[in-house]
Amino acid sequence: MSKPDFSNLSAVFVNCTLKKSPRQSHTRGLMDVAANIMVSEGVTVQHVRFVDHEIPPGVQPDMTEHGYAKDEWPGIYDKIMNADILMIGTPIWLGERSSEASKLIERLYAMSGKTNDKGQYIYYGKVGGCIITGNEDGVKHCAMGMLYALQHLGFSIPPQADAGWIGEVGPGPSYLDEEANAKENDFTNRNTTFLTYNLLHLARLLKAEGGFPAYGNSREAWDSGSRWGFANPEYR
Amino acid sequence: MSKPDFSNLSAVFVNCTLKKSPRQSHTRGLMDVAANIMVSEGVTVQHVRFVDHEIPPGVQPDMTEHGYAKDEWPGIYDKIMNADILMIGTPIWLGERSSEASKLIERLYAMSGKTNDKGQYIYYGKVGGCIITGNEDGVKHCAMGMLYALQHLGFSIPPQADAGWIGEVGPGPSYLDEEANAKENDFTNRNTTFLTYNLLHLARLLKAEGGFPAYGNSREAWDSGSRWGFANPEYR
Amino acid sequence: MSKPDFSNLSAVFVNCTLKKSPRQSHTRGLMDVAANIMVSEGVTVQHVRFVDHEIPPGVQPDMTEHGYAKDEWPGIYDKIMNADILMIGTPIWLGERSSEASKLIERLYAMSGKTNDKGQYIYYGKVGGCIITGNEDGVKHCAMGMLYALQHLGFSIPPQADAGWIGEVGPGPSYLDEEANAKENDFTNRNTTFLTYNLLHLARLLKAEGGFPAYGNSREAWDSGSRWGFANPEYR
Amino acid sequence: MSKPDFSNLSAVFVNCTLKKSPRQSHTRGLMDVAANIMVSEGVTVQHVRFVDHEIPPGVQPDMTEHGYAKDEWPGIYDKIMNADILMIGTPIWLGERSSEASKLIERLYAMSGKTNDKGQYIYYGKVGGCIITGNEDGVKHCAMGMLYALQHLGFSIPPQADAGWIGEVGPGPSYLDEEANAKENDFTNRNTTFLTYNLLHLARLLKAEGGFPAYGNSREAWDSGSRWGFANPEYR
């Protein structure tokens, strides 16, 4: 099996931990496993720790136009737009993704009126995945919401696009804690590996194709009256 | 913009309504909008109304080996395996997908130990999407769970892989009811169209590639010791 | 602290495992912990293993009126109506409650047009809780959906009305498997205990009060024009 | 039917809109319907618009001890602790509660190590509900997560503790927009009324009882070895 060349790809890893740098983030610990694979494959990887930035809540592209003194979102958005892959990482709190992860998705959503030069939604052609850590429960629930948002916004989702680690139910050690021995968890290691390579494969494929053809999915074309094979429903 | 050729693709539409034939299924009504587009593009489309078949609950490939007299799942599984695209349709009950939709996912999951000839999980290379109808609320919640399950099992999810229709909150007419006037809902029509074409584009692309390369995502290779770029996490 | 008298209370435990009797149900294992507490407190406890009964899908009170030869739901509904407490147990499959649990909720919902002698929805005055087991992830997600459904249907939910057990992420032993050592999990034991007693306390309180007063929540009164303190919204 | 006296009760309404004052909040519009009922019944009602306050993310009681210059959470927490009822309001973004609602729940959760004078978790004896508005979909999904969090933290949830308004699927007017005509939605008005009165009934009942008896649910007693009727599981 030949090794594909992923060296023209780039990825942004946005860590939605609630802890500012330089505090240890367990989520970053697992994100690094994926990032290290990408780096070893020649992919350009950038990291953003969302909570380190001054990013107001809101659903407008730039909140400085809506009463906030500062908004670092536009710079982060540019990073995401310049990358082929978006990996969202989140810790779990009470079974849910962090409020920072929700704020990230709200801000991504705020740009969703934009379209690319084919008239498609702006994130078409990019791929997305997620990494989740906690100490007791909720990997899948968090993944459901984040992958849903990503695909709804226009990202493509390859197979097994979520990976995570949690311990046995109840309070306990977190991912990077020695006593968790999480680095020996074969399931987490395998899923993180498959997630990473599937993001790379799909990003590479879509990049080679120049993204999705605009036939049947261009918002601008729809608004101009194109319908392709769509026919108004007849009721029986 | 040239029109791609989708004529070598095939799709299975599984309607998870709780109502047996020949009762009217509103979900089928919206599924037909997508199916009709596919047919107009030369795609081979098959429909399965899950509740019309005798399919026991369970997470084994064939429940006749576990105490049930009859199990029509293996035949439906074959249809799904022979198709490039799986579209799941569900009504909404109390904000959730139907129990039939859950049973379908359980039975899909029951096959997930199988691998293809590259050693990848069996659904790799296929694409999945969903269509949801109700009369008041829950399209996105149902989509979250179903798209999550599909990608976790190995399906790829193109952009905007969910479409649906609901009316204003509270009891009211359903999709096919004249007074709902749902067929004029531009949002539903557009989303259903984009969903359909994005499934076709991604299925076509993956089919042309022979599915995903096995580099970095083969369960059999992992179990045999392959790790590709994965390195055991070092903690800092 | 005096010990309350719970001996006039009754509870129904509905186990939504996918496995028919006499196969071992891990979920039943944890449900028994709660049931044993109740029995030790003099509560009358009945168990129903949902999958052992012939219960068609559907949202009608009696599906024999809708084309099915048999429907054991009405008898189970009577048991639930004769009890003060409903405990739903479910295994987790792909992060979700079982299709049997969904079918149970659909059938409970099918009765929601009924009202009691105060004109309130039929389940008012009863309390509900849930128990979830799996081997890797999803207790909270399953609890979210089931407790939501219960309260929406009219059940009251006491504090910490969910308990469960899962192991570390990934495949592994289930609740009753010796090597899981789940019976020593202090978190699960404590949560199961608190869940159980909180159901008893709230059920006892509501029973002593004769359920909820009908002031402000009677469907029949609303339909007859009662509005109590509600005033039609004025917009500003 | 006599009218209960609710005049010794108090409630805090926390609006988790993403919009700062004085911008119009549609969610506040529907919250006012509930608040007005409470005021008409003599209940003391306070409003908090979460986004108007400087509240860092985090899961510590006071984030000024963790690197933030300011944290208004402790004052809001005091308001919640002094009230019998907590009503959370949220808008819907991409089918989910707002990031502000998630931050509120994270901060509530940060206090969950505290116990009352019976050794129970600190929110025992309080009741909680939620109000959700959006323009297209997601009331139930948002309610599932918020009611789950509330009960898990120790709040009690009365019947039908969620109310909301959304329009037909797709973009459209919001709750307070004249053309939505939402104030005539009988379902929303009725649910909001029942939600409000059920919160009042249960809060009144629990207040009269002095909260929950500590028998079987005191964290401190459990930690000191009390087990009440709990017996360590025997496996069969």
Question: How is the quaternary structure best described?
Answer: homotetramer
User: Could you say what the CATH topology of chain A is called?
Assistant: Rossmann fold
Largest interface: C-D, 69 and 68 residues
What pattern of helices and strands is seen along the backbone of chain A?
EHEHEEHEHEHH
What would the average pLDDT of chain A be, to the nearest integer?
A: 96
Query: What spatial form of chain A do the alpha-carbon principal axes imply?
Result: globular
Summary, kept brief:
Four copies of one chain form a homotetramer. With about 240 residues, chain A is an alpha/beta fold. The first copy, chain A, has helices at about 25-40, 75-80, 100-110, 140-155, 185-210, 220-225; strands spanning about 10-15, 45-50, 85-95, 95, 125-135, 160-165.
Structure description:
Four copies of one chain form a homotetramer. With 236 residues, the first copy, chain A, is an alpha/beta fold. Chain A has six helices and six strands. Helix content of chain A is 34%, strand content 14%. In chain A, strands 1, 2, 3, 4, 5 and 6 form a six-stranded mixed sheet that branches. In chain A, β1 (10-15), α1 (26-40) and β2 (44-49) form a beta-alpha-beta unit. The longest helix of chain A has 24 residues, at 186-209. The radius of gyration of chain A is 19 Å and the shape is globular. Chain A starts with 9 loop residues before the first strand and ends in a 13-residue tail after the last helix. Chains C and D meet through α1, α4 and α5 of C and α1, α4 and α5 of D.
